[in-house]
């Protein structure tokens, strides 16, 4: 059976590839697994049918036969366990790659999302400049630590893994800020990852979906 | 060999059990694995020796023979994979439990941490009341969705799992806010989990460590 994922009918990032279905598309492309996409409007995402799949009413989800999953980290881990190419075979190296998956989602992403949320909901407030400086510093500190660990290696721990994949999708959320470019090894890390053919295929697929929806007049959900 | 974890020499929560070593202690107690603790001052955590173990200079870490891990989610997953009791044996149910681990750390925890951070660094600012209301609503929305999914079940998906363990440690961070108590099934879920003998043993162990450090005059690191 071909697995089915869900994605925004019309992505709020207008095809920049920052929505979380991109993580799953990229992982699927890395392991060479074909997939189908069910597109959801913001309204669809909050309906009982989708809430049965995703308790928080978000995308992506993943369905394959009698397995239904939510949470992009879990879906990427599932794909990495079922197919070769995204996790080392050595048991210790495998766990270290998984540690980088959690680091991407629980240590590096939260301050980046908080920074984006502040821009979305507070940028007209009098205090925004003051808060933005604090949030930028917090992000910079995390990226400095990440940069220190990466050093001049290509990937975070040995070969490219699901840990690198998730970390890069998190860093891409800072694209418009210029903060990643302050760390030349991190900028090169992101460039190296996004040059992978699997990333490119995934990116083009989500962009094509956005363009088709936009030309059909679908509206983006609130981010 | 007995695994070694790291924890705060003097926890900033003053023994309330909210530091992330508690997740590891609890998981170790659930699976019946003895462990040792190396206590670190805030200064120790930023030294090269610890940064080699934890790129972001935090606690906890986990060392067992030639395996060294960071990220509490990854350490709990490692323990759950090595020992029986924290993940179902059925492959699909196992992945669903892992999805709840990621949901706890990537979907539920970030708005809760953002709320706590605001209290820590912004509570004297003129805008704090306005922001707090927004942050409380964001947390409430997530908890409402979680409550809707839990319904009248004891645990999030079948038997108690590493997903429940992590989710409860995340909800405990809201302890002083009263927000969890607005959802009676979530309050019962937390009470059910923290009544487990393994939780109680882990809680007492970290409390004893805090009391010993405090009576020896150690100072808490900045949270």
From TrEMBL, chains A, B:
InterPro entries from the UniProt entry:
Glutathione-S-Trfase_C-like, Glutathione-S-Trfase_C_sf, Glutathione_S-Trfase, Glutathione_S-Trfase_N, Thioredoxin-like_sf
User: Which stretches make up the GST N-terminal domain?
Assistant: 8-87
**GST C-terminal domain: which residues?**
90-216
One matching Pfam family: GST_N
The record's section on CDD domains has: GST_C_8, GST_N_GTT1_like
What is the protein's name according to its record? Glutathione S-transferase family protein
What is the scientific name of the source organism?
Lysobacter gummosus
